[in-house]
From TrEMBL:
<comment type="similarity">
    <text>Belongs to the thiolase-like superfamily. Thiolase family.</text>
</comment>
<keyword id="KW-0012">Acyltransferase</keyword>
<dbReference type="InterPro" id="IPR016039">
    <property type="entry name" value="Thiolase-like"/>
</dbReference>
<protein>
    <submittedName>
        <fullName>Acetyl-CoA acetyltransferase</fullName>
    </submittedName>
</protein>
<keyword id="KW-0808">Transferase</keyword>
Amino acid sequence: MRIDPTTPVIIGVGQSGDRIDTPDYQAWSSIDLGASATRNALADTGVASAVADAIDVIAAVREMENMPHVPSPLGRSNNYPRSVARRVGLTPERVLVEVVGGQSPQSLVTDHAETIARGGAECVLVVGAEATSTARHFADRDDRPDFSEEIDGQLDDRGPHFEDFIDMTMVRHRLTSMPVAYALAENARRNRLGVGVDDYRRAMGSLFAPFTEVAAANPFAASPVIRSADELATVTDANRVIAQPYPRLVVARDLVNVGSAIILTSAANATKMGVPRENWVFLHGHTDLREHALLARADLGTSPAAAIATSGALEMAGIGVADLATVDLYSCFAIPVFNICDALGFDVDTPTGLTVTGGLPFFGGPGHNYSSHAIVETVERLRRQPDAFGLVVANGGIMSKTSVGVYSTTPTTWTPRSDRPLQARVDNADPLPVAEFFTGSATLDTYTVDHGKRGPIGVVVATTHDDHTRVAALTSDDALLALLEVGNPFGVELTIEATEGANSARLA
């Protein structure tokens, strides 16, 4: 097949790690990790010097500490992508930092593939890293390193844009905690299936046990330990409940030190620079969709947008689920994985597996950057399986944003974005109205119990009787908490009262 010279291709990928429990731990900053991953990606191209000279854009995944109200105990760079560039000796014309959300790595790859196809960039580096484990380790020590760095130069900071999936109703009712928010969705799905808490935990354990086997073979994994389904599902002192129904071991692991880098250019440029043809990987399908706000979803236990995005990317690539050789479904919690499996017919025991990294609870959840590692692993595996296809599903917010990529070494012409018809299918589903404050009667839809340091607090979502409006509320009511802990409170009648800071619920 003749390849259009403007076709975007991935030509280099790399990862880096600095595990705190290993003899060669170096206390690297996120800049160091990003720079190391970039050097590895440059070396992976086979023509590092030529590619380094050609990089004119660096697109960085936003670090967790580069967000309002998030502490940076060791300091940080005021311009992360240019700090990475300076470490490696790159001189990009333009750099940017993306908005928040785990969808951003795949979204950045898609965005810049399209930019390259239009002739708007020559060679693009997508880079991201987190050193949260090191930051936690040194935070209160006198010998802590200083990672502060001031660097001049252009920066397109796209801003966090939390408002894309968080509003004041969520802030008032603890839904900025991802375990709490996802637990509401998880329990809603459990209610739809008619499954008890213990059986549902066993299902999560069965889903994630194979992930641990992948993580155990991954040198960059934060927790390279094989665990059984029973071990993951059984609540113990070491595997305490974080937010019902989640035991600790099935929740994304945020203490990691890892970085990743992906380099894209055009087919013409790759040829000109002498990148070996067997290094090229093409993006055959891609989608980016947004879901309704969590509390406005008619069924809080599903995300149609994620399913539509995934099927849409596969359709663009001209393949089906059975044609995939590798799969990575975003796995901060069980429900994003279950959501795709339910909708598209993935078998949780599929021989291809549902992760190429080990997943966020075991490989680790490096802030918004997890799916960059999934893309790197996918590219490396596909190079060993010419003409096979790999799927990466990236998720941001509370199943709020989904970005999907379908990859292969098989050449293809670039297909421009065509998300609008798919987004219209999502938007056409009528969202429920949501009340920030409410006093009156309502029926419980879903719930969780947040087991924090100050004791358990119930979080409930209910639908009002009069106008079918959604309302969230907190509860410390002993009778209601006891019912929530048992795990089958769906459909009970609540009395909700608007108080100064948040709505309060008790049994009617």
